[in-house]
Amino acid sequence: MEAKYKKWYIIVSLLFSAWVMNFVDGFLQLQYLYKSILKLILFLGIPMGYFMLYREERHHLKTIITPRKKDFVSALLFGICVYAVILLAYFILRGHIDLFVIRDQLTSGIGVNEDNFLYVAIYISFVNSFLEELFFRGYAFLILKKETSRWFAYLFSALLFAVYHVGMTSKWFHWGIYLLALAGLFVGGCIFNFLNDRCENIYPSWLVHMCANFAINTVGFLLFGLL
After folding, report:
1. What's the rounded Cα separation, in Å, for the pair 120 and 124?
2. What gap in Å lies between CA 65 and CA 196, rounded to an integer?
3. Pure H helices in the chain
4. pLDDT one-digit tens code per residue, 37-46
């Protein structure tokens, strides 16, 4: 019976947190600083709340946040490939993306501009990526699969990761590119899960996630005329 409660605690808390962030991104459009604080509370606080409630699970927390050196080389090589693919996709599809609309929404919506983008880029690359990996891969995959099944955790966490980005990107692209991006996020979430499934920690996917964010931030620097 307790295992059933654990499963539903994880699933409901994941859905709630993703819904809150989608609502904030899609409707409230808080300034980036305030949105980041809220995200920190949810994406760090919700998993920690689980381990406080179920103390017998704390050894799993230690496992998912303990790195292993041998997992880094392959993840770094894969991350470099991801960086190249994202930039290539940008240069291929940029004629179908209204970059001025994206820049205006970032500036007027959440207060990101050419003056603070460097600091935002650093935060996104290192801190935000870690929060998302802890939440979507550590909590929503590595922990959830122990209470459900591997395949359910694979699909649920990857789908949640893709849908989570709906609010923040829904007005950026033509619907065709938008659906393509969501499909890419879902596949990316499955790949991230695969990277972590072998080693039971979040660091391989975090390294690849950082490389993906480096690519997106490179596009951001071009967008704001900083490169």
Report:
1. 6
2. 11
3. 2-23, 32-53, 58-64, 72-93, 99-110, 117-122, 129-132, 144-147, 150-164, 166-169, 175-197, 203-223
4. 999 999 999 9
